[in-house]
Amino acid sequence: MKRFLGLLVCALAFNSCDDGDLTMEKINFEDVDTQSCTTNDIIYKLKEKEALLLEIPKNSFVNEPTVPGTPTIINIDNANFRVVYRFYNGTIASENICNTIPPALPYVTDQWTASSGKIQIITTTVKSTNTTDNSTRITGYNHNIVFKNITFDKTSGTQVYTTFPFGDYTTQPTNALPFGFEQKVVQCPSSKLLYNRTSNEGLTIENIDPALIVNTETTLNKPRTATIGSINNRLTYRLFSGLLTDDYFCSATVPALPAISEEWNAVSGGIIEVTTTKNGTTAYKHTIVLKNVVLKKGNSDFKLGDSFPYGDLTTSN
User: Fold this and answer.
1) What is the number of other CB atoms lying within 10 angstroms of the CB of residue 235?
2) Could you tell me which of 29, 79, 36, 77 has the C-alpha nearest to residue 50?
3) Numbers of helices and strands, H then E, in the chain
4) Are residues 150 and 160 in contact, defined by beta-carbon separation less than 8 angstroms?
5) Cβ distance 38 to 51 under 8 Å?
6) CA distance to 12, 139, 213, per residue, from 174 (Å)
7) Buried b / exposed e across 102-132, counting CB within 10 Å, b at 16+?
8) Residue 126: which of 106, 140, 147 has the closest Cα?
9) Which of 89, 152, 217, 313 is placed for a possible disulfide with 286 were both Cys, Cβ 3.0 to 4.6 Å?
């Protein structure tokens, strides 16, 4: 009887290992850094003799935060979107994944291939903060990847996970925003648009309140102020793909070139401060400062800081 019970326990144990799900610890890569190949569309995680591979076009990762509750969902199709879990007979490295002709060793001893399921991606911005002025800048975009209802085909059958976390994958911003402005501000004679520019970026204030720029000195520590809005006192940052000159800003029609690479608009509510001082006998210097301004593009935003110097505008009677 004891021998029969022992055989029965072994049989049950064998069947449960062959038929049931592996525990998540056996296929857990959450704490492993994500890597990517430059020669193909594979992002991957390596752990000693195991590899978790996701083949996905790079344009699937959009540098735009997803709306809460509406993640990006992609079907696993084994054509452009593939998930593979591999076992090797030795320690593996990037060369085993990304090389056109991978090393002969180690070689794959087993492979699970996802036959169905969905790839869920939730994207958020990664920001740095300047603690001196409380400004922020976007340094990257984090894409959290989770497989939903994924089925792996393996040699001994199938294995299903309702939720299988892959982990985080970070991409860099499409463009660096230099913000290399100097102190010179110019006002267009006709439209009264204010602008500060470099050779490839412009920071403009449209429909500015005429009461801000007046050839009268302001009282000490009492600047003129106005609230930034979506129509009046509208602040816009633009990054251009070509050489930018003064001719761009004061034309009756907006030139087609240089082309705009990125456009960020100030969220309503920031403050424009103008301090005016006499500059000679007939000239006035208007020092313009932006307070608590947030720039936004789509679902991305960053803060210019508690106080951002827009620059100086010189006018005369």
Assistant:
1) 24
2) 29
3) 2, 17
4) yes
5) no
6) 55, 10, 36
7) eeeebeeeebbbbeebebbbbbbbeeeeeee
8) 140
9) 313
Asked if residue 189 has a cis previous peptide bond (ω within 30° of 0), the answer is no
Quick one: CA dihedral 31, 33, 39, 40, positive or negative?
positive
In terms of phi and psi (left: phi > 0; alpha: psi -120 to 50; beta: otherwise), the region of 267 is beta
Two structure tokens written together for 194: 């204010």
Q: Please work out, in degrees rounded to the nearest 5, the angle formed at the alpha carbon of residue 108 by the alpha carbons of 105 and 113.
A: 150
Which token pair is 34? 């994500």
The yes-or-no verdict on residue 97 having pLDDT over 90 is: yes
Task: For residue 190, give the H/E element and its range.
Answer: none
Residue 72 CB contacts under 8 Å (≥ 6 apart), including other chains: 60, 62, 66, 120, 121, 122, 123
Radius of gyration of the chain (CA): 29
- Looking at the DSSP bridge assignments, the partners of residue 168 are 144
Q: What is the pLDDT of residue 295?
A: 98
